[in-house]
Amino acid sequence: MRILLIEDETKTLQSLRQGVEEYGWTVNTASDGLLGLRLAQQTDYDVIVSDITMPGLTGLELCRQLREEGIATPILLLTALNHTDDKVTGLDAGADDYLAKPFEFKELMARIKALARRPTTTLRTENILRFHDLEQDLDAKTVRRAGQEIMLTPREFALLEFFLRNPGKVLSKNEIAEKVWDVDFDTGTNVIEVYVNYLRNKMDKGFEHKLIHTHFGQGYVLKN
């Protein structure tokens, strides 16, 4: 397995590289965002691990640029910031997972392994998903409710697709995290709640019939 580590703190970068290489994996490193971007553009990696605050190009900017170029390599962001809003910002930028410093090395390796197992493409049996007066076009990346176009971020779009593929089923936070983000979120985080609320505000606001409902203590469900 080939891993790209991007970190501007020399001692941290050396320590991470040594630990990952002990697993027998091939590791490339970059000490700034611009070099990391060039390596990610030139080489196919199984996982990219990047700090957020770096000279030249931040981890968030790196994520956005790679996604705009169609590079779907899983990205794990490392940061000293641990607020929910910071996590949401990172995930919206195109990151697949988020690990706050300080962290246990074994947790980092578990996250990397989980991301490496994640398929970078998804087989879809339908291109248009419908429920009630809601329609999602997976090819055109558009969403309409009662003919009204609704603008979603990529992560909100993926969350809506999961709801539309499971109408009437109560979806737990852990299930949403696994299927939409392909990771196991810490039980203490409220990122899932934040995204469901973002989606609910866009999908249900101004409409008489609410489609996304909360089952307290169980999860969320798409229903009339």
Please identify which CATH superfamily of the largest domain we are dealing with.
Answer: Response regulator
SSE order: EHEHEHEHEHEEEEHHHEE
In the CATH scheme, the class of the largest domain would be Alpha Beta
Overall form:
elongated
Q: Strand order within the widest sheet? A: 2-1-3-4-5
Helix tally equals 8
Q: How far is the N terminus from the C terminus?
A: 46 Å
Question: Main sheet, how many strands, which sense, barrel?
Answer: 5 strands, parallel
Mean pLDDT: 85
> Based on DSSP secondary structure assignment, what is the total number of beta strands?
11
Radius of gyration over all CA atoms, rounded: 19 Å
Topology:
Elements: E1 2-6, H1 10-21, E2 26-30, H2 33-42, E3 47-51, H3 59-68, E4 75-79, H4 84-92, E5 97-100, H5 105-117, E6 128-131, E7 134-137, E8 142-145, E9 148-149, H6 154-165, H7 173-181, H8 191-204, E10 212-215, E11 219-222
Helix pairs in contact: 2-3, 6-8
What would your notes on this structure say?
α2 (33-42) runs parallel beside α3 and α6 packs across α8. The protein has two domains: 2-117, Rossmann fold; 128-222, Arc Repressor Mutant, subunit A (Orthogonal Bundle), CATH 1.10.10.10. Mean pLDDT is 85; it is low at 121-125. The protein contains eight helices and eleven strands. It starts with a strand and ends with a strand. It has helices at residues 10-21, 33-42, 59-68, 84-92, 105-117, 154-165, 173-181, 191-204; strands spanning 2-6, 26-30, 47-51, 75-79, 97-100, 128-131, 134-137, 142-145, 148-149, 212-215, 219-222. The chain is an alpha/beta fold and 224 residues long. It has a five-stranded parallel β-sheet with strand order 2-1-3-4-5, with helices on both faces.
